[in-house]
Specification:
With about 90 residues, the chain is α+β, with helices and mostly antiparallel strands. Helix content is about 35%, strand content about 35%.
């Protein structure tokens, strides 16, 4: 059963460009993962907010994704680069 995530990442104003580069790298690498069905990044530039829409094949694939070096690097640097991160795990209704 697919796992759906929506992640909202609010950048610190002074780190938006650096964060954007890191997030684009995450997109490129995540899309190569076997369990990745969808990994899209949207930019709400007016308020320094990025939104991910993700779909993963299963929980095991998502768990493996969360152990990748580029994800761990983002987690390690997120305090310096972001004001807020909110992740919603959802179920597809229709």
């Amino acid at each position: 059963m697919s796992i759906y995530l929506t992640a909202i990442v609010k950048s610190k104003q002074e780190t938006t460009a650096e964060l954007r580069t890191m997030l684009l790298d995450m997109v490129a690498n995540s899309r190569k993962e076997e369990a990745c069905i969808q990994y899209d990044l949207h930019d709400a530039a007016s308020d320094h907010t990025f939104i991910f829409h993700e779909e993963w094949k299963d929980q095991a694939g998502l768990d493996l994704h969360n152990k990748q070096s580029y994800i761990l690097d983002f987690v390690a640097q997120s305090g310096r680069l972001t004001d807020e991160i909110v992740i919603y795990k959802t179920e597809k209704v229709a």
